[in-house]
């Protein structure tokens, strides 16, 4: 399943960390004497820096489109950028980080504690989201007004048999009023989970390795009046898919 929704391209990701940036570059130009040098202006922190002249709202939008690591790194570019990561919508993706569960717990908790919100995108392996800690993550103010949610399967382990798949955390559906893209993988969407669900802004929905009854599948599709793209992959519990839509809908199974 592709990151950020079933019909979008994968975003590049890297690990969270600080990094020295903003170094200037030098080059020797064809001056009249051998000793002449033509030095390029630095990208940031000088008269040649046009990006830092943009409004905070524009810079925040740029930062929110970066990977978690690169977005946090912008704080060291220059003093102009130090507070922008905290005010930009948070893009949190687990994939660049260590796959050790305890280390991943610490990193996700640290990022959510450091960022005041709102959230733009949250991506985590669905098997990892159980217990009180995961519930606290999903209810964090850093994820308020979330636009993209991906509870994905974990590619580096054996797939979970359909009979053992558990429902996603209840707190994952607190974003139903604001979600535009949702990808749900390797879990059991029970009738009680789907009942009453309404996703008025959802445009892209992906169900990957999901167990769901035929009635609940149709209920979920009907709960997405703005749906434009639907991907169902390796899912069980139904025999057919019935789609009634007043708008053009791209469907892949």
Describe the structure.
This protein folds into two domains: 46 residues; 164 residues, Leucine-rich repeat, LRR (right-handed beta-alpha superhelix) (Alpha-Beta Horseshoe), CATH 3.80.10. The chain is 22% helix and 17% strand. The chain has seven helices and eleven strands. It has a seven-stranded parallel sheet, with no helix packed on it. The protein has a two-stranded antiparallel sheet with strand order 1-2. The protein has a two-stranded parallel sheet with strand order 7-9. β4, α5 and β5 form a beta-alpha-beta unit. The relative contact order is 0.12.
Which tags fit this structure?
single chain; 253 residues; alpha/beta; Leucine-rich repeat, LRR (right-handed beta-alpha superhelix); 2 domains; two-stranded antiparallel ribbon; 22% helix; globular
Summarize the topology:
Layout: E1 26-27, E2 38-39, H1 56-65, H2 68-73, H3 84-87, E3 90-93, H4 101-114, E4 119-125, H5 131-138, E5 148-152, E6 181-185, E7 188-189, H6 191-194, E8 204-208, E9 211-212, H7 214-222, E10 229-233, E11 250-252
Parallel strand pairs: 3-4, 4-5, 5-6, 6-8, 7-9, 8-10, 10-11
Antiparallel strand pairs: 1-2
């Amino acid at each position: 399943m592709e990151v950020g929704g079933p019909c979008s391209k994968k975003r590049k990701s890297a690990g969270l960390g600080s990094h020295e940036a903003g170094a200037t570059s030098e080059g020797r130009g064809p001056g009249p004497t051998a000793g002449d040098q033509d030095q390029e202006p630095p990208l940031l922190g000088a008269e040649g820096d046009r990006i830092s002249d943009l409004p905070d709202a524009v810079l925040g939008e740029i930062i929110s489109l970066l990977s978690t690591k690169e977005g946090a790194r912008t704080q060291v570019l220059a003093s102009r950028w130090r507070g922008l990561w905290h005010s930009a919508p948070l893009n949190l993706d687990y994939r660049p980080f260590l796959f050790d569960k305890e280390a991943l717990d610490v990193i996700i908790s640290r990022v959510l504690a450091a960022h005041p919100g709102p959230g733009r995108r949250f991506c985590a392996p669905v098997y990892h989201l159980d217990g009180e800690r995961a519930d606290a993550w999903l209810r964090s103010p850093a994820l308020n007004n979330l636009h993209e949610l991906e509870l994905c399967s974990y590619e580096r382990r054996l797939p979970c048999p359909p009979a053992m798949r558990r429902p996603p955390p209840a707190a994952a559906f607190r974003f139903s009023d604001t979600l535009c893209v949702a990808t749900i993988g390797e879990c059991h969407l029970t009738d009680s989970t789907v009942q009453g669900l309404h996703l008025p802004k959802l445009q892209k929905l992906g169900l990957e390795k999901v167990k769901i009854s035929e009635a609940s599948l149709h209920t979920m599709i009907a709960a997405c009046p703005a749906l434009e793209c639907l991907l169902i992959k390796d899912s069980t519990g139904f025999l057919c898919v019935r789609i009634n839509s007043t708008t053009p809908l791209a469907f892949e199974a």
